[in-house]
C-alpha cells in the first residue's frame, strides 16, 4: 500500500466508527423515547380517569388536571417530532454507509488500467456509478425533507 491508500483506509475506518457510534446513540435515544411514551401514556390514563370521575372535584382541580393533560400531549408531540428526526438520521446513516461502500468499489475499478479492463468491468463500473448517483440523490432528498421540516417548525 502507498501512503495515500493507507490514509484513505484509515479515514474510511474512522468514518465508519463515527457512523457506528452515532447509530448507537440514536438507537439509545429511540429506546428512551419509547420508555417516555409509555410513561406519558400511563400518566395520561390516570388524568383522564380523574377527569371522568370528577364527582365533587373543585373547578380549580379540574382545570389543573386538564392543563396537565395538555402538557402531556405537547410533550408527546415533541417526542414524536424528535423520533421522526432520528428516523431520518438513521436513513441518512444507512445511505452514507452505502455511499462509502460504493465509493470503495468504484475506486477499485477506476484504479485499474483501462487496457486491462474487461467489458464486464466497464459495465460493473457504470452500474456502481449509477447506484452511487442514486444514493447521493436519496441523501439529497433526506436533507431537503429535513430542511422543509425545520422551516415549517419556524
Helix content: over 70%
The helix-and-strand class reads mainly alpha
Gap from first CA to last CA: 51 Å
Total domain count: 1
Mean pLDDT: 91
- What profile does the largest beta sheet have? none
* Computed Rg: 25 Å
- The coarse overall form would be elongated
| Tally of strands | 0
* Low-confidence regions: none
Give the SSE order as H and E letters. Answer: HHH
Task: Supply the number of helical segments.
Answer: 3
Beta-strand percent range: under 5%
Protein name: MICA1 monooxygenase
GO molecular function, one term: monooxygenase activity
Domain BMERB: 13-154
Coiled coil: 23-50
SSE topology sketch:
Elements: H1 3-52, H2 59-110, H3 119-153
Helix pairs in contact: 1-2, 2-3
Amino acid at each position: 500500500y502507498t501512503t495515500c491508500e493507507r490514509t484513505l483506509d484509515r479515514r474510511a475506518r474512522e468514518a465508519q466508527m463515527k457512523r457506528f457510534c452515532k447509530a448507537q446513540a440514536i438507537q439509545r435515544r429511540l429506546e428512551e423515547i419509547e420508555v417516555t411514551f409509555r410513561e406519558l401514556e400511563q400518566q395520561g390514563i390516570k388524568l383522564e380517569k380523574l377527569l371522568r370521575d370528577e364527582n365533587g372535584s373543585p373547578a380549580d382541580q379540574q382545570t389543573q388536571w386538564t392543563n396537565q393533560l395538555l402538557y402531556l400531549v405537547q410533550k408527546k408531540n415533541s417526542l414524536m417530532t424528535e423520533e421522526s428526526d432520528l428516523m431520518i438520521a438513521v436513513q441518512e446513516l444507512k445511505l452514507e454507509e452505502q455511499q462509502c461502500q460504493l465509493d470503495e468499489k468504484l475506486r477499485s475499478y477506476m484504479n485499474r488500467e483501462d487496457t486491462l479492463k474487461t467489458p464486464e468491468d466497464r459495465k460493473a463500473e457504470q452500474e456502481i456509478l449509477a447506484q452511487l448517483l442514486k444514493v447521493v440523490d436519496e441523501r439529497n432528498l433526506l436533507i431537503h425533507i429535513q430542511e422543509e421540516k425545520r422551516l415549517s417548525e419556524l
